[in-house]
Design a protein that fits this description.
The chain is an alpha/beta fold and 595 residues long. Helix content is 39%, strand content 14%. It folds into four domains: 10-213, P-loop containing nucleotide triphosphate hydrolases (Rossmann fold, 3-Layer(aba) Sandwich), CATH 3.40.50.300; 216-366, P-loop containing nucleotide triphosphate hydrolases (Rossmann fold), CATH 3.40.50; 378-432, no CATH class; 468-577, 2-Layer Sandwich (Alpha-Beta Plaits), CATH 3.30.70. A seven-stranded parallel β-sheet has the order 3-4-2-5-6-1-7, sandwiched between helices. Strands 8-13-12-9-11-10 form a six-stranded parallel β-sheet, sandwiched between helices. A four-stranded antiparallel β-sheet has the order 15-16-14-19, with no helix packed on it. Strand 10, helix 13 (283-295) and strand 11 form a beta-alpha-beta unit.
């Protein structure tokens, strides 16, 4: 079936009174197409093969009918819902609990890796009607004998394609083999690769196929734009966009776990409430991060695709693809985190010049163009800051009692020989010195030829554009960029690294505070296990560097030393930097390179 039947109200399906009352309490009136198509079939016991994108309401599509058929008198698990990630397991369990709130004695248990096994064992012993879990932890309990599926009525595979991508095919087949032959199966997937078809053919009995063509509907509700940005300019582009863009909550998608931490730390260093969300975090930290986002204590979460699975936060108004996804389906999943429940959302995509092919592939898949936008200019930022400042002034004058301050300004003009204009100008400067109205324009993006991602151009020491700074950047991993990147810089090595717990935030804070250096003039930061490389303006005074030698970060001394090729006289000379005497042996030893 390619389209949903004519949509009636929830009360027309024959759901149990308790379930119907719960969804009425939540204000649900009209089912979504996937709900209208699935609920009647699942109520009759049919197997379902559903294809629908994230955000179409598929959790309610299977939860409402299956909960309506549950027997509260039995303590054995009757419904098992498999999800690819712990986040999605928690989200589904929370939704099911809300739908069953009028079902007295109902118990549901989410089980997943990262949570204490003893807690899950105690809850399983008490009995649960519904189990929601990740395949690995479900199998752990099956093999321990603590989860018995002999009374199972229904098995749900939610986001089955993601479970297969994550390598869970053997686990899924094992779980199927532990379930009764007469159990009902509901399999949901955003895509239908061959592996899904094989599972369907082997384990589902005459399934009803329901395909909701919602991809274009999902993305048309979201305002989508893209910016052509060189890799090294992404962070500057990000901070400029965040300053002029009005947003509530935001998810920033990157490709790697390491990038989640790097980008989140750099955003935090620029004053944004941002944190990372990745698979290396323990479950308590992940749950706390999501909860802080929901409560408004956190505005930006930087995540990978896997970590964001199941992340459903109503206040997410923007999704930023900091790194373009490698396939269109991932793009649709990502931007589906905004524009939920009829709300407007915005999706921002960064595209490097050499990634145009990926952009075109996404546009073909969603059947619409993603408009290109120009990055905010220095003038745009200046005007935006002035507008915000004026708005704050107007609000203050309208809402605050300023009589005392009028008298104070009047007294200052008489006693201190200052004009009211002088006072206003000085106070304006003090109020905005961290975000000055006069913004320096960064270097414009290079021409198409110059910004080519060709590796030969980046690595070639013969390139006409191969300045010392560019050669250094070509040899090292990307370390982000900051305002003031047009200032010539030297590279310095700090004797503190990731094994000491250091992040870019600590590096910037220590150097900026101790050296009296504007954080905008601190360049790229590359953190290795036992050391850190940081770019600082050329000609750093010797007394400042001497002072930084004794500064501690994460309980480790910085022991800063210049490692640029042309270390000047103002920089501390290390043993490695001293010119060695020539050897006259037959096979002279190689000179140690200047550090």
């Amino acid at each position: 079936m390619d389209t949903a039947p004519a949509i009636a109200g929830f009360d027309s399906f024959g759901l149990s009174p308790a379930v119907l009352k719960a969804i009425q309490d939540q204000g649900y009136e009209t089912p979504t197409p996937i709900q209208a198509a699935c609920i009647p079939e699942l109520l009759t016991g049919r197997d379902i093969l559903g294809q629908a994108q994230t955000g179409t309401g598929k959790t309610a599509a299977f939860a409402l009918p299956l909960l309506s058929n549950i027997s509260l008198g039995s303590r054995d698990p009757q419904i098992l819902i498999l999800t690819p990630t712990r986040e999605l397991a928690l989200q589904v369990a929370e939704a099911c609990q809300s739908y069953a709130k009028h079902m007295g004695g109902f118990n549901i248990l989410p089980i997943y890796g990262g949570q204490g096994m003893s807690l899950q064992l105690r809850q399983l012993q008490r009995g649960s009607h519904v189990i929601v879990g990740t395949p690995g932890r479900v199998i752990d309990h099956i093999r321990r004998g603590t989860l018995k599926l002999g009374s199972l009525k229904s098995l749900v595979l939610d986001e089955a394609d993601e479970m297969l991508k994550m390598g869970f095919i053997e686990e899924i087949e094992f779980i199927f083999e532990q379930t009764p032959e007469n159990r009902q199966v509901a399999l949901f997937s955003a895509t239908m690769p061959d592996a899904i078809r094989k599972v369907t053919k082997k384990y589902l009995k005459d399934p009803v196929e329901i395909k909701i063509k919602s991809k274009s509907e999902t993305v048309t509700a979201i305002d989508q734009v893209h910016y052509v940005v060189n890799r090294d300019h992404k962070m500057d582009a990000m901070t400029r966009i965040l300053e002029v863009e009005e947003f509530d909550g935001m998810i920033v998608f990157v490709r790697t776990k390491l990038a989640t931490v790097e980008v989140a730390d750099k955003l935090a260093a620029h004053g944004f409430a941002a944190e990372a969300l990745n698979g290396d975090m323990n479950q308590a930290m992940r749950e706390r991060t999501v909860e802080r986002l929901k409560q408004g204590k956190l505005d930006i979460v930087v995540a990978t695709d896997v970590a964001a699975r199941g992340l459903d936060v109503q206040r997410i108004s923007h999704v930023v693809n900091f790194d373009i996804p490698n396939d269109p389906e991932s793009y649709v999943h990502r931007i589906g985190r905004t524009g939920r429940a009829g709300r407007k959302g915005k999706a921002i995509l960064f595209v490097q010049p050499r990634e145009n092919r990926l952009l075109k592939s996404i546009e073909r898949s969603i059947r619409q163009a993603i408009p290109a936008m120009a990055l905010p200019t220095a003038g745009d930022l200046s005007e935006h800051r002035i507008d915000r400042f004026v708005a704050v002034l107007r609000d203050t004058m309208a809402e605050q009692d300023l009589d005392y301050y009028y008298r104070l300004v009047s007294r200052m003009t008489q006693e201190q020989e200052m004009s009211e204009l002088d006072i206003a100008a000085a106070l304006t400067y003090l109020g905005q010195k961290d975000r000055p109205f006069i913004v320096k324009e960064v270097a414009a993006p290079a021409s198409k030829k110059a910004r080519s991602g060709d590796k030969r151009e980046r690595d070639s020491s013969q390139s006409d554009r191969g300045s010392r700074k560019e050669r250094s950047a070509g040899k090292n991993k990307e370390r982000g960029s900051r305002k003031g990147s047009d200032i010539p810089k030297d590279t310095y090595r700090l004797q503190v690294g990731s094994k000491h717990g250091v992040t870019p935030r600590e590096v910037v804070g220590a150097i900026a505070n101790e050296a009296g250096l504007d954080g905008a003039h601190i360049g790229r930061i590359e953190i290795a296990e036992d050391h850190t490389l940081v770019d600082l303006p050329e000609g750093m005074p010797g007394d400042v560097l001497k002072h930084l030698q004794r500064v501690y970060v994460c309980n480790q001394p910085l022991r800063i030393q210049c490692v640029s090729e042309h270390a000047g006289s103002s920089k501390p000379m290390t043993d490695k930097a001293k010119k060695p005497k020539k050897k006259r042996d037959k096979k002279p030893k190689q000179k140690p390179a200047a550090s």
